[in-house]
Structure formats: structure tokens, C-alpha cells
């Protein structure tokens, strides 16, 4: 993929999709900053990558905190000299609440992490990419960012917003050597559901109607392959768009 010596920041790199992206990138000789709220698990990923001959640096980051975001980008420059690839992957789910039962505080939490964190990381990174005249941004959206039947209202809206900033950023900086794309994974076997508490019975029952069409659950490594394609020049003509990776699930609708 000719990505040797590139530097990537990956949020949510301690688990699931982010971990798989970090390990695949490191395998391609990309130097990776592993940004996660869970520093112990991020350090375990760092150790694994280092043991396999790769270069990685774990950093404790809450993507809902601006100072942490700025520190995360500064850490890439301090540790590895620059930044070439930003992967905004950290995200949390709701508990399937429909609009009638959304709690303001939970809505805000989900938007701070899933949406505002993405904007802030892009905003903090852009001066570096603009100065270099190149750079790649990859956002982990969701099939829930394209459809209405996969989660609760807050998660669905937060991921639709990620699709929006992806398209806007891709277009705005299209002639500056910067590409911004999103991945919309379908159901993937990660730890994300473990944080779901008090699942909303009615909301969940509505999402089940669409889940019946899901061919299978994906593996994080299958999403990582899409993130590798989007990071590389193999996707040089792909910008401001969303690649769905869901085994054909949403082709049903
Ligand atoms: N698993 C799926 O089925 C699926 C489907 C579509 C989209 N996604 C998206 O994929 C992304 C990765 O999720 P995953 O499924 O790998 O989940 P995961 O829970 O396995 O991993 C998420 C990681 O993000 C970290 N994180 C959570 N909040 C954070 C914060 N505020 N700051 C920094 N790090 C934080 C967690 O500590 C964890 O390591 C998310 O954006 C999620 O919405 C997942």
C-alpha cells in the first residue's frame, strides 16, 4: 500500500474496530498513535504492536475533551514528527431510545463523543494537513448514519452528522490534497454493546425488524481493510463519501 513511515492517529484504538485498524496499519509500517479513554487497554495494544516490530504510542484521550484532542495531535508530532492520517473512530452507542424517551444528558454525551469529537479532531489536524498540502481523514460512521432503523435516535442522529461533516470536509478541502471519507460498518463483533445499559424495549424491538435482514456479523479486521484502502493512494479518487461495509445488509432497504 506504500504507506511506510506515515503517521496515523486512531481514536478508540484500544478495542474493536480501532484496535484492528491500528494493528493493520502498524503491519503496513504506519506509525500509530493509539488514542483511547482506556489507557491500560491502549497500552496493551501498543505492546502487541511493538512486539511485532511496529511503532505505536498509547495516549489517554477523552475525545469529548478539547485539551485531550489537542494533546493527541501534538503527541503524534512530538513522537513521530508529523501526522498523515487521522482516523476518528471512537464512539459510543445509545440504548435504542426513540425520540419520545431521549434524555438530554445522554443525547449531549453521545454528540460530544460521536460528533463534536470528530469535528474537533478534524479542526485541530487541518493546519498540519494544509501546510503539508496532503492528508487523509477517515471517520467511522455507521449504517445507522445512513438509515433510521439500526439504533436509537441519538446514535442515529450523531452518526448522520458524522456523514455530514465527512461530505462537507471532503468537498471543502478537495483541492488542498486532503481527502475525508467515512466507513459505515454494519453489525461488527466488538465490545460496543457491552456498554449498553437499560436497553429500551420498544426501540430495540423496532430495530429488530431490520436486523432480521443482516446476513452476518462482521469482524473488526474486515472494517480495518476498508480503513487501509481509504488511507492509501489506492483510493486517491475517493473523497467526501461513505463506504458501507455490512455484507450487503443495507442493500435490502
Ligand atoms: N460494532 C459495531 O457493530 C459498529 C457498527 C457501526 C459503527 N460502529 C462504530 O465503530 C466505532 C468503534 O466502535 P467498536 O464497535 O469498535 O466499539 P468498542 O467499544 O469495541 O471500541 C470503542 C473504543 O472507543 C473508546 N472510547 C469510547 N469513548 C471514548 C472517548 N470518549 N474518548 C476516547 N475513546 C473512547 C473505548 O474505550 C473503546 O476502546 C464507533 O464509532 C462505533 O459507533 C460500530
UniProtKB/TrEMBL annotation:
<dbReference type="GO" id="GO:0008206">
    <property type="term" value="P:bile acid metabolic process"/>
</dbReference>
<dbReference type="InterPro" id="IPR036291">
    <property type="entry name" value="NAD(P)-bd_dom_sf"/>
</dbReference>
<dbReference type="InterPro" id="IPR020904">
    <property type="entry name" value="Sc_DH/Rdtase_CS"/>
</dbReference>
<dbReference type="Pfam" id="PF13561">
    <property type="entry name" value="adh_short_C2"/>
</dbReference>
<dbReference type="InterPro" id="IPR002347">
    <property type="entry name" value="SDR_fam"/>
</dbReference>
<protein>
    <submittedName>
        <fullName>NAD(P)-dependent dehydrogenase, short-chain alcohol dehydrogenase family</fullName>
    </submittedName>
</protein>
<keyword id="KW-0560">Oxidoreductase</keyword>
<comment type="similarity">
    <text>Belongs to the short-chain dehydrogenases/reductases (SDR) family.</text>
</comment>
<dbReference type="GO" id="GO:0016491">
    <property type="term" value="F:oxidoreductase activity"/>
</dbReference>
